[in-house]
Hints:
Elements: H1 2-10, H2 48-57, H3 61-65, H4 88-101, H5 105-114, E1 131-132, E2 138-142, H6 147-152, H7 159-170, E3 178-182, H8 196-213, E4 217-221, H9 223-230, H10 236-239, E5 244-248, E6 251-258, H11 261-266, H12 271-284
Helix pairs in contact: 4-8
Amino acid sequence: MLSLLNWLQAMGVDAAVDDTAHDWLSRGNEAPGAAFAWPERGDPALGAKASSDAVRADPRQSTLRSRPADPLGASDTGRPRAVTPLGASEAETGARRIARAANTLQELEAALQTFDGCGLKATATKLCFYRGAPASDLMIIGEAPGRDEDLAGKPFVGRGGQLLDKMLAAIGLTEADVHITNVVYWRPPGNRTPTPQETLACRPFLERQIELVSPKIVVAVGGSAAKEILGVTEGIMRLRGKWREITAGDRKIPAIATLHPAYLLRTPAAKQLAWMDLLQIRAKL
Ligand code: URA
């Protein structure tokens, strides 16, 4: 059993999102959260063996037999499951309206807690809003929370985050001097890259967050965050270390991309490039 769990984890299956297994492929092209009836137990679509195995494995089989048609509406554990009943552009429009109404970071966080337009919420444990100072000259934006962040409810607290803190310390900064967040606020299952739809749904919140934090500099960490923040398509090696400008409300803010600490952990030789970027950031500050 331990070997099996280790293998599953190595394959990226490191989070249980429900008490029983589901055949997600049987949903066809249904959007996450759209009304969908799981096959009833004994349904040929579930497969006789899978069905009896699932019932044997779960002592609460009677509850499961009467589960609602859309299990993403509410979980058996009582933990509410987020849904994405809207298309990506509708979710983005809704997000924009809600995000604009937030006048403080607390209000923005409260709005995110109730926002159901990003499908990642359905599988994440916690919202990861930000860590560091609420208002700061330096705002750091990464790609997405990972496992450690999902458990802690804060961005960049795992091994990559620890390296990020060391990188900041190298230019004389502590957590209290920076505002750290991500392009999406919930962990993608298995740490996959967020989809464009997921990023789009979170985008209005991130834009409002930048306005409220009002940084002098924005640093995008890693290729995926850099593309999203800077609105470009080049790879991180071409993007990094060059100043650009982003717009937040009525302000233009200098922005730069650098290498992701997770990449630096795997490729220590690239630290010299990150160091050059850090020196630029220090000089600009
Ligand atoms: N990687 C990121 O991009 N963000 C985090 O919060 C953690 C790891």
